[in-house]
Amino acid sequence: MKNKLITIGFWIAAVVLIAVLIMSMGFSFPEALLIGVLFLPGVLAARYFLSKISFKSRKAGLLDALFLILAIMVAETALVVFANISIIQMRDIFLLTYEGYPKMLFNPVFIGMTLTLFIVGDTALSRYLGKRFPSKQTPLHFVSDRRTISLLKDEILYIESNDTEVTVYATQGRSFRNKTGIGQWEDILGDEFLRIHRSYLVNTAHATLIAPDTVTVADARLPVSRKYKEWVCAVLQTESRAS
Question: For 226-239, what is each residue's pLDDT tens digit?
Fold first, then answer.
């Protein structure tokens, strides 16, 4: 709850700062605030959809990111134009003068930089709050040998696929058999887990890259397939430098 309130406070402060900047272009504060608020949809879209893009194939990931950025830029430009037209109409109604479209407001560089600063600030704040005020994880529930098992993500070390079932290896030497496919486990566990082989999905917090084709998790040495090698090396080497 505290994290959400701080994040909302950041968004409000960012919108006010953007509005103050836009006021320098000849808008009143309410008009500038309206335009500032219209940057929020683009920020929220980037925040949600960028996290969904997979870079396992670097080329495909970069293309997806580029198309998303272009779509957000077009949408934001359209919103700013709509806001400006609305402001013109309101000034006409109240017989107020209007000096015309400020060129800077419709400059793609200005719109892009504003969105980028907003997104970078929001991302940095989210990471800081995640470390400063870690939220409690919700246990994952699954069936193993007719028993319902509850595990936190952090307790799962890696998952091994064995034809018609998988084995979930957890901390304290525990292991559990389950009928859910490894692809479904990959979707459930999210970005903290990394596919290194068609048969292995590992928790990046517990995984160490000891060779381009080998990862260790706890006491297990797991192979990295050629298909995933480039992505695994990039992710685990980054994790290693960050720690």
Answer: 999 998 998 888 65
